[in-house]
Design brief:
Layout lengths: L4 E7 L2 H10 L3 E3 L7 E7 L2 E7 H5 L16 E5 L3 H13 L9 E3 L2 E7 L5 E7 L3
Parallel strand pairs: 1-4, 5-8
Antiparallel strand pairs: 2-3, 3-4, 6-7, 7-8
Length: 130
């Protein structure tokens, strides 16, 4: 069975989030985009749904975490090379990421991290398994 992955993240300003992820080179699925949400296309099987906070809250009875103060999830994306990792982080920095993490190197893994405008933690990594 093949499944698609949809990570749902609350955002304060949908337009600002769209600008940020556009600057990183992502596209959006217009079938899932309106004034309450957009769908960031990560791959043909993975998407990040950015939902304005009141709309996000309608899906849960819990409080919405303030990702600038707590970590509710780390979204990790694979890259084809170390250079692609560095390019994505450079784009995040240029787009105004409020936090860029240090280089992480452990064995065959090379990675970097950044926060989006709402404080959600993203990691980009490359695994050299040759």
């Amino acid at each position: 069975m093949t499944m698609k992955t949809f990570v749902n993240l609350p955002v304060k300003d949908l337009d600002r989030s769209v600008e940020f992820f556009t600057a990183l080179g992502f596209t959006f699925d217009q079938n899932f985009t309106d004034e309450n949400a957009t769908s960031v296309v990560i791959s043909e099987d993975a998407y990040a749904m950015l939902l304005v906070e009141p709309f996000f809250k309608s899906f849960t009875g819990k409080d919405v975490a303030d990702a600038t103060r707590t970590t509710e999830v780390i979204t990790a994306l694979s890259a084809d090379s170390r250079e692609q990792v560095d390019e994505m982080v450079a784009k995040a920095r240029a787009a105004g990421s409020p936090r860029i993490g240090e280089v992480m190197e452990e064995g065959p893994m090379y990675g970097r991290s950044f926060d989006d405008p709402d404080g959600h933690h993203w990691e980009i990594f490359h695994m050299a398994l040759d």
